[in-house]
TrEMBL record:
Transmembrane segments: none annotated. This is Pentatricopeptide repeat-containing protein. It comes from Actinidia chinensis var. chinensis. Keywords: Repeat. InterPro entries: E_motif, PPR_At4g14850-like_plant, PPR_rpt, TPR-like_helical_dom_sf. GO terms for molecular function: RNA binding. Belongs to the PPR family. PCMP-E subfamily. Gene3D superfamilies: Tetratricopeptide repeat domain. NCBIfam families: PPR. One of its GO terms (biological process) is RNA modification. PPR repeats lie at residues 112-146, 213-247, 248-282, 349-383, 384-418, 485-519, 520-555.
Length: 739
């Protein structure tokens, strides 16, 4: 009966394009001519026949045809052939067919490790780690033990699945089965512990190893790199050389990656130079790391040089290298180069799209980023959380919070899970718009998603609550953050300062220093601003001196602007003026405007005129300086000079942006603008304001009519009054400021 099948196999396969070695043809022909050959040899001949063709086939249809023939001939009872079928389907990416071939295998095949290993490898290869773990558990229940091929696959699945309990259980199974000295198994355990972030356990395992290979050392260096431990990575690298094993390209790449991840960019470039000097072949991965370092260092010249080496070395077809180049050019603002690289790419993955979107967003080109994002939505690749977050962050950075919030709502409708960066960006948008209600809703989402312990999210919540006027809620978030960074402290100090609570800001600053955090330049800007808002002049002076003397921080122009404003507001105008003159750098417009504003407060026209001339010499396009000087003249009765300054501003084409304030009532935002009383539904508000004004006058609180500033953009009609002073011919509309 078997010989009959042997005769029919070639005629039914229909595989004309496949070549078949002559030795197999002779064997089959021999079996047909000599019917006295025993059954066992004929069966083995048939298995070899199918195995050979399964390894040779190039298209899926041929695999399906062979599968049919295997079933017809009864060869499916071979565990070896069943395993080969699973591997072949997996090779073509047909994981479902591979699983069907596995599940339909005869019962006797399930005692053979070849079949289990083939389906485990298929699932791990295509990222189905949970399924691979389920198969392993099923295998254990059937009493089938793993071998040196099973355990590396299962360990890799557990590590990538990210379940530390499962990982340790599998490690226990390794010991139970006696594979604790198996080189490949232990190497995979080292990689696993590196991915879990427990390099202490990896090091103990490494130290007990009697035999080590390049893979062993590379696993340790990569593990330390993955966990941002560049010292550990360098120690392994150095030990490897001491033991007489030459680090290869993978080792060097891991060393470069470890230092790049730790922010040691110059060290990374130094090691890359050393690698080149030693004649180690550069890998595409190493080049991608160096390109990313050039992006972070803002070293465009170096990046362009590496780009030249990428082309010369034939690495330009590596997708991840090109993606790194797009990011590098984008971070340097060389958008045209980033666009050119992107358009040249025949194959684009989600990283490619995100690199270009991020390039536009970081360059402040929110509309262009959104256009590329829209193209991505219409392509075969779907936007992921990074795509959405980049566009949302781009809108927020440019002050377009409303559009950012609308995009965030679309993201939720698209059922894309947010991450900490998305939440941080959208909270910044809420802070900009003072959308406290929406900020609270997002806070609730954060708690439900168990993201409330994330430092980036916590910092975003503090920033949102302080800017939306809810300092108590900001303090509650601050107190619940277990692990704080310098940004957390800076935000809380700035929040207290913003609300005029200078003493609270000083106490928080002292707590921060006692907790072992070293303040930076931003810390001192926040604390000096807090002293400024609270009028704490002595404390501000001490902090300014402490910054230099105790913490070795050289004051920048922003710090001088704060201290000048503080002194000027407290009537120490001469001291503020002297400080401006003694600055080690050229004062910018902010410093001069701070001094000019102090002159307005104390009606000092002499210092004001000199200061204003300095501001105007900076070619500042802001209207504020002109308005301040004009108001100073008006406050001292110099109406003609006031009018002259305003006309000068108008001649330059400068127009003051009307002041605005807004308040959210019952989920509706009401905006109040200077000189605009036409908002529908606001009639009652303005009527109440007029009544309040009348009550103020009745109780003796009269407006100071001598100083009534106007917007430059409006027509100003001046006329000579009875006492010879200039006055406005029409009264100002009331202004509303909502605090």
């Amino acid at each position: 009966m078997v010989l009959g099948y042997l005769i029919s196999v070639p005629s039914h396969l229909h595989l004309p394009k496949l070549s078949f070695p002559s030795i197999f043809s002779r064997r089959i022909s021999g079996s047909l001519l000599h019917r006295t050959q025993n059954y066992s040899n004929a069966h083995n001949e048939l298995l070899d026949f199918f195995d050979h063709f399964l390894r040779q086939i190039a298209i899926t249809r041929q695999c399906q045809q062979l599968h049919a023939q295997i079933l017809l001939t009864g060869s499916c009872h071979s565990a070896f052939l069943a395993a080969r079928l699973v591997s072949t389907y997996s090779r073509f990416g047909f994981l479902d067919d591979a699983r069907k071939a596995f599940e339909t295998a005869p019962v006797e095949c399930f005692s053979n490790l070849l079949l289990w290993n083939s389906i485990l490898r298929a699932n791990v290869t295509y990222g189905e780690y949970a399924e691979a773990i389920r198969i392993y558990i099923r295998m254990r229940k059937l009493g089938v033990g793993g071998d040196g091929f099973t355990f590396p696959l299962v360990i890799r699945a557990c590590a990538l699945f990210g379940d530390s309990r499962l990982c340790r259980n599998v490690h226990t199974h390794v010991f139970e089965m006696g594979f604790q000295c198996h080189l490949h198994v232990v190497n995979e355990l080292l990689v696993m512990y590196g991915k879990l972030g427990v390099m202490g356990d990896a090091r103990k395992l490494f130290d007990r190893m009697l035999v080590r290979s390049h893979i062993t050392w590379n696993a340790m260096v990569s593990g330390y790199a993955l966990n941002y431990n560049c010292d550990g990575a360098f120690e392994m690298f150095f030990m490897m050389e001491l033991e007489g094993l030459e680090p290869n390209a993978v080792t060097w790449t891991s060393l470069l990656s470890s230092h790049a991840r730790c922010g040691l960019h110059l060290e990374t470039l130094r090691f890359y130079g050393e690698m080149r000097r030693k004649g180690i072949d550069t890998t595409a991965e190493a080049l991608a790391v160096v390109v990313s370092v050039c992006a972070d260092l803002r070293a465009l010249d170096m990046g362009e040089m590496i780009h030249g080496y990428v082309i010369k070395g034939g690495f330009e077809n590596y997708l991840f290298v090109k993606n790194s180049l797009i990011c590098m050019y984008g971070k340097h603002g060389a958008i045209r180069d980033a666009e050119s690289l992107f358009s040249e790419m025949e194959l684009k993955n989600i990283v490619s799209w995100n690199a270009l979107i991020s390039s536009y967003a970081e360059s402040g080109l929110g509309d262009e980023a959104f256009v590329v994002f829209s193209e991505l939505e219409n392509s075969m690749v779907r936007p992921n959380v990074i795509s959405w977050s980049a566009v949302i962050g781009g809108f927020v950075t440019k002050g377009r919070g409303k559009e950012a919030l609308e995009l965030f709502q679309q993201m939720q409708l698209a059922k894309v899970s947010v991450n900490s960066i998305t939440i941080s960006s959208i909270l910044s948008g809420c802070a900009e718009l003072s959308a406290l209600g929406l900020g609270r809703e997002i806070h609730g989402h954060v708690i439900r998603a168990m993201m409330n312990r994330n430092m980036l999210v916590g910092n975003g919540l503090i920033n949102m609550y302080t800017k939306c006027g809810s300092l108590n809620e900001a303090l509650l978030v601050f107190e619940k953050i277990d692990v704080r960074d310098l940004v957390t402290w800076n935000l809380m100090i700035a929040g207290y300062g913003m609300h005029g609570l200078g003493n609270n800001a000083l106490k928080t600053f002292e707590q921060m220093v006692k907790a072992g955090y070293r303040p930076d330049g931003i810390t001192f800007i926040s604390i000096l601003s807090a002293c400024n808002h609270a009028g704490l002049v002595a404390e501000g002076r001490n902090l300014f001196n402490q910054m230099i003397r105790e913490f070795g921080i050289e004051p920048q122009v922003e710090h001088y602007a704060c201290i000048v404003d503080l002194l000027g507001r407290a009537s120490f105008l001469q001291e503020a003026s002297d400080m401006v003159r003694s600055m080690p750098m050229e004062p910018n417009a902010y410093v001069w405007v701070a001094l000019l504003n102090s002159c307005r407060m104390w009606k000092n026209t002499d210092v004001a005129e000199e200061t204003a001339s300095r501001v105007f010499s900076l070619d500042s396009e802001t209207t504020g300086s002109y308005m301040l000087l004009s108001n100073i003249y008006a406050a001292t009765g110099r109406w003609e000079d006031s009018a002259r300054v305003r006309v000068s501003a108008k001649t330059r084409g400068l127009k003051k942006v009307p002041g605005q304030s807004w308040i959210e009532v019952k989920k509706k935002v009401h905006v109040f603008s200077a000189c605009n009383t036409c908002e529908i539904g606001m009639e009652d508000v303005y009527n109440i304001l007029r009544h309040l004004g009348l009550h103020m006058e009745i109780e003796g609180y009269l407006p100071y009519k001598r100083f009534m500033p106007r917007d430059v953009g409006e027509d100003i009609n001046w006329e000579r009054g009875i006492e010879g002073e200039l006055s406005l011919t029409k009264p100002l509309e009331p202004k509303i400021v909502i605090l």
